[in-house]
Design goal:
With about 280 residues, the protein is an alpha/beta fold. The protein contains eleven helices and eight strands. The structure holds acetoacetyl-coenzyme A. It is an enzyme of class 1 (oxidoreductase).
Length: about 280
């Protein structure tokens, strides 16, 4: 029997977490959005408000609907806010230790029947499941950036994830207006295993002076019909995130084809992380 989902907990109010909270509230769910600091919540809520306002300006949402959506999002600092959650999606920083700690805590505070999902792009779901006593109800729910726009949710089945958990997660993704596609718990899943080598290769081409950043991106945009070039996309994703994912692929497979480009490492050393810091391969 399918259990009804009414309240969705979201851990982390960054770009991904606030995007997930937005689509969940827009789909009619009550949302509890938790972060460690009030200012992070403020920033997340401001991004949601701005996104929804764009839809109001374009006539796709009424002012009342916008108010109702925002009204369904309750912000929280305390973990106890998740006591009533029927489904929790974790979207904290891409750090295996931090995420495992979040899962240990969620396992204590969220009722045992609820599913715990991670938006991780590269950390094994099986590992996060093992930090809990409900590894059959731990699953990957990998949204793409920008969450309100992108159709895909990559559903990742950990070794211990049950069929029922996968099914309920697929259903939820559909109710959020997304298209779920399933894969196994393999490094980088499918999305990043295929995407990151392309981005890395574009950075190698830039490092070697094969072409300018504009030419590299232009060739991929116009030649392959990609909505944006790989360097601009790396800036959108965050260069630190790209490096972290490449490191996981490199370590897990032990294959040199995944070695991160030194230029990517230098940009991260410099703190040029892309759009979020105002400078990456481009200036913002
Ligand atoms: N939040 C909400 N909506 C946004 C948005 C954001 N951050 N950015 C753009 N949009 C909306 C705009 O409002 C606009 O909506 P309408 O067409 O309905 O009016 C629409 O998206 C298109 O935006 P723009 O016209 O401003 O710009 P664009 O046509 O260049 O599109 C884009 C922007 C959607 C980001 C597009 O360039 C694109 O699809 N890029 C590729 C994104 C991508 O590949 N994402 C996956 C990254 S990988 C990942 O996330 C996973 C991982 O693990 C690393």
């Amino acid at each position: 029997m399918e259990e009804k989902i009414e309240t969705i907990g979201v851990v982390g109010a960054g770009t991904m977490g606030s995007g997930i909270a937005q689509v969940a509230a827009r789909a009619g769910y009550r949302v509890r959005l938790r972060d460690v600091k009030e200012e992070h919540l403020e920033r997340g809520l401001a991004a949601i408000e701005q996104n929804l306002q764009r839809d109001v300006d374009k006539g796709r949402l009424s002012v009342d609907e916008k108010r109702a959506i925002i009204g369904r999002i309750e912000r929280a600092i305390e973990w106890s806010a998740f006591a009533e959650a029927d489904f929790v999606i974790e979207a904290v920083s891409e750090d295996a230790e931090v995420k495992a700690e979040v899962f240990r805590t969620l396992d204590q505070v969220v009722r045992p029947e609820a599913i715990l999902a991670s938006n991780t792009s590269s950390i094994p779901i099986t590992k996060l499941g093992a930090a809990t006593r409900r590894s059959d109800r731990v699953v990957g729910m990998h949204f793409m950036n920008p969450v309100p726009v992108m159709k895909l949710v990559e559903i990742v089945r950990g070794l211990a994830t049950s069929d029922e958990t996968v099914e309920r997660t697929r259903l939820l993704a559909e109710r959020l207006g997304k298209t779920p596609l399933e894969c196994r718990d393999s490094p980088g899943f499918v999305s990043n295993r295929v995407l990151m080598p392309m981005i890395n290769e574009a950075i190698f081409a830039l490092q070697e002076g094969v072409a300018t950043r504009e030419a590299i991106d232009g060739i991929m945009k116009l030649g392959m019909n990609h909505p944006m070039g790989p360097l601009a996309l790396a800036d959108l994703i965050g260069l630190d995130v790209c490096l972290a994912i490449l490191n996981v692929l490199y370590e897990e497979f032990g294959d040199p084809k995944y070695r991160p480009c030194p230029l990517l490492k230098r940009y991260v050393d410099a703190g040029w992380l892309g759009r979020k810091t105002g400078r990456g391969f481009y200036e913002y």
